[in-house]
Amino acid sequence: MSNPESSSTVRRRAPVPRADCALAQATEEIGDRWSLLILREAFFGVMRYDDIREDLGIPRSVLTDRLAKLVARGLLEKRPYREAGDRQRFGYSLTEKGRNLALTFIALTHWSEAHVLGALGPIEIVDQETGRGLRVALVDDEGRIVPAERAVPKVRVQDG
Amino acid sequence: MSNPESSSTVRRRAPVPRADCALAQATEEIGDRWSLLILREAFFGVMRYDDIREDLGIPRSVLTDRLAKLVARGLLEKRPYREAGDRQRFGYSLTEKGRNLALTFIALTHWSEAHVLGALGPIEIVDQETGRGLRVALVDDEGRIVPAERAVPKVRVQDG
DNA sequence: TGCACTGAGTTCAAAATACGAACTCAGAAT
DNA sequence: ATTCTGAGTTCGTATTTTGAACTCAGTGCA
């Protein structure tokens, strides 16, 4: 988005509000080493404590803490379920709020494949109905795809 | 993406590789309380140590450490610059790798506005050329926009 | 009835990180 | 020579994370 080459002099300070932004709030909710990974488990249908723990290698005490926080913040729900012929247990599943992180999660995964991993990971995201591979893109209000280089931040006009 | 209502029995374990995924790599690079926020500053053109520190309220020792890590990992570059009539200084600017996090960053910001903040933040992302507001969407390989609910994970077929 | 097993935690001590206030240091301006 | 400023370092304290051991309720089996 911002293009550092576009002006030869440096703005002393960007003319935008900053610390109290949406992104800062978001990092409060999921900006730690484990939360996003736990949510990824939920995306893929893993809902049991011990499965998550094994998959991620997260210490029990941290997992317990993170699950409680994600539930408290409304990203996960703790719900009873019963597997065939087994007793009732509790598992965690995504709420609407948690499910809506999918775009972020997919965008970050694609970034990592391109710039960190340097290869495609073992999982792709496809359209359930057509089977076609999906990617994340910027679109304008008429549904046209716009390359990310053309995106720039703009202070929203308040009604005052 | 995953729909917890779609099957009445719970899969014991999701049939997908997990911990060694792209997302885990990505959280190594930017999954702490400050890195994303620092990159946001860079997106908005803030490149000076003390400006970042003031904006975010981050302790100096932590900022120094994060900047060094982000440079080491190739998300930021430390470059000399000179303001009119001032001595040469050093500032930080995004690399291509860092700039490519824009989609993730925008997606997360929109999520936070919708689900955490409950209101639009002070900044919108617009198309530099048309001025139109932009949002993040999933598109298929023919450029058609697909609603996020239709996105499902699928194990990629390896060549073996 | 007693006993081992399992899932889902809790507890706790040690290690790693984060925090914030004070200090440093080089280049410019006076 | 002194002061100012940007960009850090240092360091003692506070908070978090980690991993190993322990708990505890429900089940299945003998």
From TrEMBL, chains A, B:
Keywords: DNA-binding, Transcription, Transcription regulation. Pfam families: HxlR. GO terms for molecular function: DNA binding. Residues 21-120 form the HTH hxlR-type domain. InterPro entries: HTH_HxlR, WH-like_DNA-bd_sf, WH_DNA-bd_sf. This is DNA-binding HxlR family transcriptional regulator. It comes from Jannaschia seohaensis.
